[in-house]
Amino acid sequence: ATVVSGSVGSPNNITAGGGITPLAIGRKQIIFVQGSAGPVEVTAAARIANGINVGDELQIIGCSDANWLGLADGNNLRLNGNKTLVNGSVLGVVWDGSDWLENFWRD
Question: DSSP label at 99?
Answer without folding.
Answer: -
